[in-house]
TrEMBL record:
Pfam families: Cyclin_N (PF00134). Signal peptide: none annotated. It comes from the Eukaryota. This is Cyclin N-terminal domain-containing protein. CDD domains: CYCLIN_CNTD1. It comes from Xylocopa violacea. InterPro entries: Cyclin-like_sf, Cyclin_N.
Amino acid sequence: MDFDSAYIEPLLDDWLETLRSVITAQENLIKAKDEFYMPFVAIPLPVVNAIFKITEHLDLGPDTRYVAIHLYDKFMCNYFWEVYKNTDQTENSWIEVCKKISSQSKLYLMSCLQLASKMDSHSRNLKISQVLNILQWIDKESEYTHSTIFLSEYKVFKTVGFRMPFCTPLNCIEILLAATGLKDTPNIQELAISLLDLVYLQREKLCSHLQCLIQGNVAKTQKEWRNFMTLESNVLYLGASIVLCGTFFLCIDGEMSNVIALKLSQLIDVEMNDIWNMANILLVMAIQE
């Protein structure tokens, strides 16, 4: 997004309300017992690394990168549930489901990148020839055709209900920067993107520390696990923590940081201490990097 304060202010409340409703719907899905949705289960570090390297190689921007990450995560969860429900759900079937999904994962990953690039006005759309070249690079044992690429892209889009990710963490960061008046602070957007990249490359470490700070221990019960997962998947919470962490690097004084933290807490309806906790963990991780 390219925010302009001349027209953005009247829309901020509506955008935040919509984002909060999307997050609430996602939290309900996580807690539902008759559905399968585990955020981030389909995007372990090797997948994130692959997306980062491919987008860098193709000179695709951060918007494409994060739409692709969240699209792939949602698609793989939906696809797994769709395939699993249509089997007899025995141990052998489970193995076959995993094999089938694994064998097609690189193709579907490229389809997610292809779809994501079409949503980014700052990037050129990925052409089928480019997708084929990348697949030849990352999957030398398989053969792909133009038809395969086209059908895969349609399969991905259909499986996610023909809906692209509406609220990636990057979108949330941009909205929160505008809502807190920090949008025009020099270097804040570049710094925020760097911190967001760090989160996705160190997610397991971040979440482990965050659980211990908030819950006192790593989740042991089903209830603790689901409660933490709803917080972990809250992209507004992540965006607010990154914005607050960014103020530390820009040498904004402590009193002003407290004002910003309170404002962020009110905007996203998350306890201020929780925002401070993640922001401090991010600060330490960034310094160590």
